[in-house]
Predict the 3D structure of the following.
Amino acid sequence: MKKYSKTHEWVEVDGKIATLGISNHAQEELGDVVFVELPEIGKEVKKGDVLCSVESVKAASDVYAPVSGKVVEVNTELDSSPELVNQDAEGKGWIVKIEINDESELNDLMSEEEYKKFIEQ
Amino acid sequence: MKLIFEKSVSGRTGYSLPDLDVPQKPLSEMIPKGLIRKEEPNLPEVYEAEVVRHYTNLSRLNHSVDVGFYPLGSCTMKYNPKINERISKFDGFMYIHPYQNEKTVQGALELMYNLQNLLCEITGMDHMTLQPSAGAHGEFTGMSIIKKYHEDRGEYERRKVLIPDSAHGTNPASASMCGFEVVEIKSTKEGLVDLEELKKNLDEKTAAIMLTNPNTLGLYEREIEKIAKMAHDSGALLYYDGANLNAILGKIRPGDMGFDVVHLNLHKTFSTPHGMGGPGSGPVGVKSFLKDYLPIPVVEQDQNGLYYFNYDLPKTIGRVRSFYGNFGVLIKAYAYILFIGKEGLKEVAELAVLNANYLRKKMSRFLKIASDLVCMHEFVVDGSELKKYGVKTLDVAKRLLDYGFHPPTIYFPLIVSEAMMIEPTETETKETLDKFAETVEKILEEAREDPEILKNAPYTTYVKRLNEVLAVKQPILRWQKGENVKYTDL
Amino acid sequence: MQNPYLPHTEAEITEMLKEIGVSSVSEIYEKAIGKASDIELKIPESICEYDLLRNFRELSEKNVNFQEYAIYLGAGVYNHFIPSAVFELASRGEFLTAYTPYQPEVSQGTLQALFEYQTMICELTKMDVANSSMYDGASALAEAVIMANNINGKSEILISKAIHPEYIEVVKTYSRGKKLNIVEFEFDNETGRVNLDDLKSKLSANTSCVAVQYPNFFGIIENLKEIRNVIPENVIYIVTTNPISLGILEPPGSFGADIVVGEGQVLGNPGFFGGPGFGFFATREKYLRRMPGRLIGQTVDSEGKRGFVMTLQTREQHIRRARATSNICSNHAHNAVMGAIYMSLLGKKGIKEVANLSLQKAHYLAEKLDKLEHFHLKFSGPFFHEFVLETDLDWSEINQYLIEQKIIGPLELSRFYKEMKQSALFCVTEMNRREDIEFLIGRLGAVFNEINI
């Protein structure tokens, strides 16, 4: 099930692996994504830490880890095609996969519906 | 236009140098073989007239103060007097070497000494260094001084610097370069420093508060003396970013407000030209208790009236650049101050404030002004209402280009949505301000009628809107032979 | 007195105040500040333009200038010929009075000129990318050191003692905030080149970068290849260089330099008592996003026409604020454009010729002086257009004597190196004519008697 953070990341969990990126709403706000600074594989992050950043021409937006864990994979396709984040933010535009430490952290995140309400406010 | 490289013809030359009048020796006798350049650098081969036409034609593609109105907020694009250019080119200024014996450069030292003193008097500070090359460089210098001051007192834990969210990006960047941790202070709805927020964050770990006054919204921080007291009571220092000093010349001084460290931008306030983004000059003034921390050297005068460089500042932060600063720029600022004199300085501030308030009043009829408070030398338009026409501040800015105006600073300060920051300066006429206001109003009418007009603007410039996304995604940062041919028009 | 920079007539001021709805400008200040404001500055009254001109001419004439005197001082600021077209073109108001090219559609002149400049710096240094200028050579070197730390996270900076001492001081100032540890390594007292053994012994697992100067502060041409060979791959190799020398010397880019910086004053900028010149900054493409400063890039407009913009701006302070690669905002664009105009005029042949003239004349003088009684060359290493001369006499007395002969003599190295009291650094460029050189040789030949009268 897809979950969302207040800082506009989405995360989808499959077993111990969480795939995440920035929400479709976030990419709309950001405009043309021109660069994604991917984290190093093996990087340990705590929930709320800056994971990496997504850049448009005139803005650099941090991506925060919605859950704690270890980076196990990054979407290297974004190196050559950062526009994937615009085209399919919550699919092909995923950014990293994290092996999560504590599944209970997911409970703090919003459901799709809750997130929709959150961004309308 | 073609690049100068694309005009190159093998064998052409554009220079004339003195002859080799000593016996020529083979290079191999002087330079080890592996260190002699094998391949010539691919510099253009063009003759003098071509170079002159090329750069003259390029220059004509620029907007500039000499061409027209340039109301860039926070940049103080005032007229740059021609006499200053002439003076700065005297042989006795242009052709002197920084390591000449001090006795042979007394004129230069006298100039620097007097300028230091004039700037102290204008800002209400006790000592001044002319070394920093630009505003941000001054910030780095000033914040380095503050860092060292606290450390020398054993207060290593003072690592926090409080900066309003309306501040220029250089403020947090400079503080961070000095090893400080930046804490952003939210502004009030009116756009002033929020004293409650400040109080909350001000503690025994705070090293300094960095402020601009008037601030980036063009508003005077009325509570400045209270802020200074709060800072000092908690052991922190108060830093003044001089970006907006033009508004208060001869009226009120940062030193009197309670600031401990001040940087100036001679290229803003003191009329030296901006030169496409530099060179500037960013002198830093301090109260006497910080004198020993200034970068070395400072210019002083001995009992015999002789000027000299004093390198003996026991607690100095060191140097922030080679030699003594942008002397060529200092000459112009010094000439400006002497030319307009005491009354002139005051007049500059008053007319800058008059122009800004006049234009603000005119524009308030058709645009929302970000703050209701009376402004100083600049004001900020809140462009969020433009959305109702389906356009953005950027579109208005681009359309202004078609009417021969340089747009204001846009999307800054960050706390105002769709911001447009307007600083007319004192050197603009009422007609220009009227015309500018009229033009913006007309552009808004255009937006009402057909937003596409704005969205596709500009139409009359040498190039149309440029693809900045492409420039980042596929960076081409230099010319290379054989490339660059796919474009429609060179 | 009339102020020609201000347009306001009394009538206009009245009208404008009326529009604003106040009775005086003071009232605006009172409303904005909350109290009356006016101070009496202790600043002289205004003067007319003619008097200003006279006063400044007088002031300038209190300086000894090297248009009238022969000069043998270098050490970071050099007297090269500047073609008239450089000054004429650079004086155009469209260059001089433009601001940072924030609106590219009306700044193509600036942007294209700086794009050309970036290309020329890449060509000279043989590096991939160059930014559109820094303040000066020293701050460019300091920024390079910070960038190296950003790249590899290590904190030990190995810096050659044969780098301009003021540059080292600036590196130290900049490094304090990042808590970098500056370790200086020695030069060889015989050759004047860096002491490779000392360098090797100071390398550690925590070494972030190694910085050398080429040619070094003493004019000696370092062997950049040998130095690269002793530095581990992951240590950033920084070279600060004199761009004129690269007309004749193999560029640092050929020897695996990661960052190449230097002072660009020699490229068409006058001495100006040390500023403004400009710093240049070049690096490898892979480090592009770690670079400080403004970058100009090529793109197309909405109709497919080539144009130029400032690009990769997310590195910079106005976007990344506290986390920017540097705080630099204003740079030395105008000086860099003067550099571009100079390099256009000189071209590939001219740069080489300036370098060769300087080299040949410096060697001619050095050899002659080495043969004089009381003088000898200190170092045996190969040199470009500067050399260190030792004497058993007193350099300050010699320089005092030379100035009386209308010669601005060499730099006394005791200024920076306590142990080098007997040494002075000479510089010769294409501007030192044979007859002047012979005159200097004659004067130094006679100096023992002259100063001991």
Remarks:
- Chain C has 14 helices and 15 strands.
